[in-house]
Design a protein that fits this description.
The chain is an alpha/beta fold. The protein is built from 13 helices and eight strands. A five-stranded parallel beta sheet has the order 2-3-4-1-5, sandwiched between helices. A three-stranded parallel beta sheet has the order 6-7-8.
Length: 367
């Protein structure tokens, strides 16, 4: 098989062969799923002090104030049991558990810094890392699948704080599962914090017959004090539009020239994602320094699209730049998808892949 040619026929590519996501089939033990429930690398160093509120959006400043009080109220010296936790740091610890919500729920659009604030809360909470858990909603449901419901309850009941990023309910089974799980954790004294683009009372709308599960959805809502965070997507404030795709030759050359880069054609990668459980997408990207894709095209169906959303989240968490040829990322999903029940997931994926595409600009020579 001949070597791939460089752009403009400038000769074969002789750099070492890049990695391939399609060649990876990771196996993730259950104990790693628990150990990995910490803020992703992108948010290792974030703190409340590094969050820069938009002066035109007072809700952002208010969210920082409330969350700082929330963290201060989670006294690491307190004993287990919901009656000995202060959640918002107001006054002395009550003798009995408050009747109100046991957590905070950050609701807002894309790129207003919700995950930054959630990770800052995790870092600010005065407890050992082993007593705090941070994961996406998908990772939480995957943990239940790996450990079983009772073992998950036992494992997380000893925690002071559970942070759930990207809280979304996509089917009735998840609604009942999460409602029951969080209820048991609250009873055990675990404080909750979550982010989403949907208010807790509206979770599930447009995806399934939410009215049939209203009791469970309202039960979830009762666990949280909702904080609305307004603002524009910070990833696009004052920044240029997402770069147009590169050529196949440019992407291939960049993959060969970049240590730790992967190179895959888009269609085979989508097929491979169907064979790897989404709980392993993080492990799929272990050690990858850049993802190079050729032939990006619209995803063919909703199941494929949702798997791609999870991969985009894991790449964004790990700050892995994405260099691609084919169509730009804002054309990945059909109008029907962008107007359907999962539209918020798709817009989030577009926003994040666009940011990673900008990050990939240094991988190749200027056009």
């Amino acid at each position: 098989m001949s070597s791939p040619l460089a752009p403009s026929g400038s000769g074969p590519i002789t750099d070492p062969a890049p990695l391939s996501l399609c060649a990876r089939e990771p196996r993730v033990p259950a104990d790693r799923l628990v150990a990995d429930m910490v803020p992703p690398p992108r948010f290792d160093s974030v703190r409340f002090s590094t969050y820069i509120p938009d002066p035109n959006q007072p809700s952002q400043t208010e969210a920082v104030r409330v969350l700082e009080g929330f963290a201060a109220g989670l006294d690491s010296g307190g004993s287990q049991g919901s009656g000995k936790r202060r959640l918002f740091g107001f006054g002395k610890a009550p003798k009995k558990a408050p009747a109100g919500p046991r957590g905070v729920y950050l609701d807002g659009g894309y790129g207003v810094g919700k995950t930054h604030l959630l990770a800052s809360l995790w870092h600010a909470t005065p407890a050992e890392p082993a007593l705090k858990a941070f994961g996406t909603f998908v990772e939480l449901t995957n943990l239940v699948g790996a450990l079983g419901f009772q073992q998950t309850v036992q494992t997380l009941s000893g925690h002071r704080l559970l942070c759930i990023d990207e809280f979304e309910l996509d089917d009735p089974g998840d609604t009942v599962l999460v409602s029951t799980l969080l209820g048991k954790l609250v009873d055990a004294g675990v404080a909750l914090a979550a982010t989403s683009n949907t208010l807790p009372g509206k979770l599930g709308e447009g995806r399934f017959a939410a009215a049939d599960f209203l009791r469970e959805i309202q039960g979830l809502s009762a666990h949280f004090r909702a904080l609305r965070i307004d603002g524009e997507d910070y990833r696009h404030r004052g920044l240029p539009e997402a770069p147009p795709p590169y050529s196949d030759e440019q992407v291939t050359r960049a993959a060969h020239a970049t240590e730790g880069a992967s190179l895959d054609a888009f269609s085979p990668l989508l097929e491979h994602l169907a064979r790897v459980h989404p709980s392993r997408y993080g492990a799929l990207t272990d050690g990858i320094k850049a993802v190079c894709l050729t032939g990006v095209h619209p995803v063919p169906d909703q199941s494929t699209a949702l798997r791609l959303v999870v991969l985009a989240d894991r790449l964004y968490d790990r700050e892995v730049p994405v260099l691609a040829s084919g169509l730009p990322f804002d054309r990945l999903f059909s109008d029907e998808m962008l107007n359907g029940g999962y539209r918020k997931k798709y817009f989030r994926a577009i926003s994040r892949l666009t940011a990673l595409a900008r990050d990939a600009g240094t991988l190749t020579d200027p056009r």
